[in-house]
Amino acid sequence: MAFCRQKIRISRNQFERELWAKDALAAGIDEVGRGCLAGPVVAAAVVLPKPIKRPFLRDSKVLSEKIREDEYAWIIRHCWFGVGIVHHRAIDRYNIYHASKIAMRRALMALFANYNGTKPIEAILIDAMPMDLSGTAYGAIPVHHYPKGEEWSQSIAAASIVAKVTRDHMMERMDLVFPGYKLAMHKGYCTKDHQDAVKEENHSIIHRMTFLNNPHYGPQKDEYDEQSSLF
Hints:
It is a single chain. This protein has helices spanning 14-21, 65-78, 88-94, 96-114, 149-152, 154-177, 183-186, 192-201, 209-212; strands at 25-32, 41-47, 80-86, 121-127, 143-146. By secondary structure, it is of the alpha/beta class. It has a domain at 14-172: Nucleotidyltransferase, domain 5 (2-Layer Sandwich), CATH 3.30.420.10. Mean pLDDT is 88; it is low at 1-8 and 219-231.
């Protein structure tokens, strides 16, 4: 397995274009929900079927909700994908960094289980976080990880959309069960409204206790930083 830790210079869809040119495919992986106080972390893995021209197939964080939902609908109709979910108790047990890696691995395994295409998947592309597939049936597939992957790879961008929409829908349903926390609005992130609700209502059974018990928790961005994985 090619396990890439070094910094690399890439152009948009570089890995995909190289593989498409030789009739092969790439799988993109991304996850959402690292910085939340409540709910699961969700990862997705997506294989785009061929070269495509979709200008809005971009990082889920820069898309409006309507465009994100439209792109999600297109992805699930036209692409192969898998989703991995790790709930809040596992996050408390393993910490958010390792829980995110578990979710990503589950998403990739689900993708391979669902994949029924004829072209080989010859690269795995990940936003920032490394993945070690040694000891699995897929250990020979090169894994490339690099910062801001959603900006450089439409495969990773597609995965970010599937993960984001999947988790948002989950949090909207959880809001019906736990209405006092406004989960449908902030999706469990550490907003002031969410912090105020926790102070008023106390925590719920879906809150991450390692986050709430950390004296330094506060508004967080959903960004990868292995060094700050304190939970």
